[in-house]
Amino acid sequence: MSQNNLSGEIPKSLEALMHLTYLNLSFNSLQGEIPSGGNFSNFSASSFMHNKDLCGAPNLEVLSCRRKLHESRDLSFLKYILPIIASTIGLAVAVCLLKTRRKRTQTNVEPLSLHEWTRVSYYELVKATESFDESNLIGNGAYGSVFKGKLSNGVDVAVKVFNMPSECAVKSFDVECEVQRNIRHRNLVRIISSCTNLDFRGLVIEYMPNGSLEQWLYAHNNHMSLVQRLQVMIDVASALEYLHHGQSTPIFHCDLKPSNILLDENMHAHVCGFGIAKLFGEDEVMLRTATLGTIGYMAPEYGMEGVVSTGSDVYSFGILVLETFTGKKPTEEMFSGEVSLRGWVLEAAVVGNIHMCGCVWLFSYKKKESIYIYSSYDMNI
C-alpha cells in the first residue's frame, strides 16, 4: 500500500490480523500513533518511512508520540499568532503591489491557463486521451507519439508520450524539460506540465488546432496563401532570434523542419520538438556532438562532422523557407547526388527558365545570420 496518497491514522484493528507477516505503508500521508500490538512489533522502519506525521517506538525511526504531543501544543499556540502575522505581511504586500502596478506600463498578458504549471497525474492523462486511444493520435515521432486530450478543467491539450524504455527517448524527454523550463516566447509551444513514473514519460503541451506546417504544405485538403506562408516564416524567425539572442545562454534547436512547426487557430507558428536541442556554455560559439538531426535540413558541417552552432539552425531555416515557398521537400527523389533543393533554386535563379509558384527565397546562413530575399511572382526568374 505504499505510494497511494493514503491519509488518516493506521487502524488499531489491524493488530488482530494474526497472520499479517508483511506490511508496507511507506510514502503516504499517514498520521497518529503506529499500533504496537499483534504482529506490529515485528515490522521495521521501512514499513512506515516517509510518513512525516506518524509517531511510535524509537526503532521505527519516527517521532515519539510524547514529543508529537508537545509539537501539537506548540502548533495550537501558533495558530492564533500566525494569522495576525500573515495578515500584517499580506497587507504590506498588497500595498506594494498596488504601487508597482500604478507605475508599470500596460502590457499584453496572455491567459493564465497556459502559463501556470499544473499538476497532472498519469490517471488524468489516461482519462483525457481515452486510454491513449488511436482515435486521439495526432502525430508520431522518432521518440514517441502525440495524442489530443481534454483535461478535467476543460482545457484541450496535446500529450507527448515518450517510448519507454528507450534510453534515447528518456534523454529526449530530459532535454525538452531542461530547455523549456526557462524559455517563454509567443512563437514557442509551451509545456503545461509533465508526468513521470517508472514506466511512463509524458509532456502536456498546449494544443494547436491547425496541426503542423507539414500537414498544410502536403495535405490535399489544405491550402496556404502566400501571405500565410510569409507570416509563418516570420514567426519561426522570431522564435529562432529569441533562442539565439534573447537570453544569457543561447539555445540551438538542431531539428528545425515542417513537422516541428505547429499552427494555432490564427495560423501563427509555434516551434516545438526540442528533444535534441543544445544549450551553449557562456563562452561557446559552437559544439561538437552526435549527429541526430533530420536529413535534408542539417547544415553540411553538422551532418558530416557533428559541429553545431546557431548558424546550423539558420541553415535549416533557409531550407524550411525554400520548402515552404516551392512546395518541394529537400528529400524528394529529384534531389539526389549533387542536386539539392538549395542548388536547384539557385540554378533556377541563374538560368532563369523555371516558373515558381509564389516566390523563391535564396539565403546565406554564414553572413551574420542574414536572410537575403529574391522574389518572383509566376514569372521567369
What order do the helices and strands come in, and which of them pair?
Blueprint: E1 7-9, E2 29-33, E3 53-55, H1 65-103, H2 112-115, H3 122-128, E4 137-140, E5 144-150, E6 156-162, H4 167-180, E7 191-197, E8 200-206, H5 213-218, H6 226-245, E9 251-252, E10 261-263, E11 269-271, E12 278-279, E13 286-288, H7 300-305, E14 307-309, H8 310-326, H9 341-351
Helix pairs in contact: 6-8
Structural class: alpha+beta
Please give the number of β-strands: 14
Shape: elongated
Strand neighbour order, sheet with most strands: 4-5-6-8-7
Look at the structure and name the CATH superfamily of the largest domain: Transferase(Phosphotransferase) domain 1
Q: For the terminal residues, how far apart are their CA atoms?
A: 73 Å
Helix share bin: 25-40%
N-to-C order of helices and strands: EEEHHHEEEHEEHHEEEEEHEHH
Uncertain regions: pLDDT < 50 for 5+ in a row? 105-115, 353-381
* Cα Rg: 29 Å
Number of domains: 3
The CATH class name of the largest domain reads: Mainly Alpha
CATH fold descriptor of the largest domain:
Transferase(Phosphotransferase), domain 1
Task: Supply the CATH architecture of the largest domain.
Answer: Orthogonal Bundle
Look at the structure and give the mean pLDDT: 76
For the report, how would you describe the main beta sheet? 5 strands, antiparallel
Strand content: 15-25%
Per DSSP, the total helix count is 9
